Amino acid sequence: MMLAIVPIIEGAIVLFLIILLQYIFAWTARLSRKMERLINAVPSLIFYDGEFIEKTMSREAITKGEIFSTIRNSGIDQIDDVKAVVMELNGQITVVRKSKGNGTSSLDDIKPLEKRLNTTLKKI
Question: What confidence score (pLDDT) does residue 90 get?
Answer without folding.
Answer: 81
